[in-house]
Amino acid sequence: MVGAAWGMRPRAWSVLFMAGLPDAKIDIVRTLVRDAPDKVVTGLRNALALADGDTALAGVRRVVDAEVDDRNLRNKVLEPIAPLFVGDGSASDRLNFPARALTLLWRGLKAQAPDEIGAAARFLPDYQPDESSTEPFDSLVEQLAYGLQVGEQRDYVAALEMIEGAKPGGTGVLLSCLAMSAVVRRATLRLPEWISRTTQERAAAARLAYRDACRFGDDAGPCFFEMLGAQLAEPWTILRIVSAVMDRPAEGYLAGSELSVFATRLMDQLDVNLKKVSGFDLNGGVAAGAAAAATVETLTLQITELENAIDLGREGGWGGRIHKQKLSLAGVVESRLRELPKLQNAALPSHKVRVARATVSEPRLTIEPDMKLVDRCRSLLAFAEGIRASANYGGFSSTRAKVIEAAGETLDQYVEDVLSLVRDDEVPDREIAGRFLQVAAEFASPIHEPRAGDIVRRRAATAFGAVRPQRPNLEDPAKLL
Length: 481
What we know:
Layout: H1 2-6, H2 10-16, H3 23-35, H4 38-49, H5 58-77, H6 99-112, H7 114-123, H8 135-150, H9 154-166, H10 170-179, H11 181-196, H12 200-214, H13 220-230, H14 238-245, H15 251-255, H16 261-278, H17 285-309, H18 317-337, H19 340-347, E1 350-355, E2 358-363, H20 371-386, H21 391-394, H22 397-423, H23 430-447, H24 452-464
C-alpha cells in the first residue's frame, strides 16, 4: 500500500484526505509520509497549501509540515553525506549508499541524541552560511559515527545491514565519510566559487581542504571528491576541482594517481551518452528529439571539461580516446541529421503528375497526413533545433546548416505548390490540403524561425478565402471551322 501511495498525484492525496481523518488514521498517514520520497512529500505539501483554511485537512497539513521540517533539518545536519544515499546503493561506478538507510540513520540519531537534535532544530532558522557556526551540526555527525561504531541502536543496526547488503565494506566507507564531514561541510560552502572560476587563491583553498581530508585515511582523498561531487548539479564537474588541486595535471600523472577515477568515469559517460544519441527513438516525438539534443549539449560540455582539466597527449592514451569520442559525436549527429530529407518527404508526400508532355512533382493531397511519420519528423526537427548552440564546438555545424537549408527550400516549395493548388481550386480535398498546410506550418518554425509557422498559417487562410472562380469550359475553336 505504501508503494501505491507514493505513486499518487498530489491532487489525489488531497482528495483522499478531504473528509478529514481521526487520530488513529492520522498515525497511518504519518507512517506513509515518513516513508515517502522527498519529492512526494514536497508535492503533497504544495497540494495541501492550496487547501489552506480547510479544517478537515488541518491534521494532515500538520503531519506533512512536520515531516518537511524534519527532513530539512536532517539534510542540513547530514549535509556532507546525504546526497550519497541514492537508489539501492549498489552502483559500482561511484560512491553511494541505499536511500532507505539514510532514513534509518536519522531515526537512530534522533533516538540517540534527542536533546542535541532539538537544539539543532532551534538553531537552524537563524543559521547563516559563512557566518554561523556549524558546531551543532558537526557534533551530531560525530555522535552518529560513535553510535555506528558501538552498533547497539536498532535503527543503526538495520541501516548498516542494508548498506553491507548493497555493497560489502560499505560500513567502513561510511565511517570514513563521517570522519571528514566537517571538512566537506566547509568545502561545500566554497563549491560555487571553485566551480565558477578557478583562481590561484581558490585553487590554494581547494588544495588545503583536500590536504585536511587526506589526514583521515589512505582512501580519504577520493572520498573527499566523491562527497563534493555529490553536492553538484552535474557531479562530473568535480573534475574541475580535481584539476585545480593537481594544477592541471598531465594525463600520465593523473592516470597514475588515486584520482584517475574521476576522469575515466567521465570518459565512460561519454560512451554511454553517444549511444543514447545514436539510438534515440524518433517515434518519441518532440520530447525524444529535445532529450537527445540535450544529451548532445552535455557531451560537448563533458568533452570541454576533459580538455580543460587535463593536459592531454595528442596520440594514444586519454588524449586519443577523447579525440575519437569527439569525432564519434560529430559522426553520430551528422548521421541523424541526414535522415531529415527522407523523413520530411514522407511526412509531406508528393507524387509525379504529367503536365503537357512533362512530368512534375506535385503534393499528394488525396490521403490524410500519416501522423506517425509526422511525429518522427517532428522529433528530428526538435533534435536539429536543440543542437544549434553546440553545433560549432561539436564539429557538425556545417552539416547542420546544409541539411536545414535544404529542408527549408523543400518545405517552401511544398507550401507554394499547395497554396497554388488551393487558389486554383485544383485540390481533391480542401480539408486534407488544410491539414497538410498545418503540418508544414509546424515544420516551418524549427526549420526557419519561430514566426515562420504563423506566416504559413496566414497565407493558407488567405488562399482558402480567395478561391478563383472555375474557368469556363470553352469549346475548341478548331471545331467551329
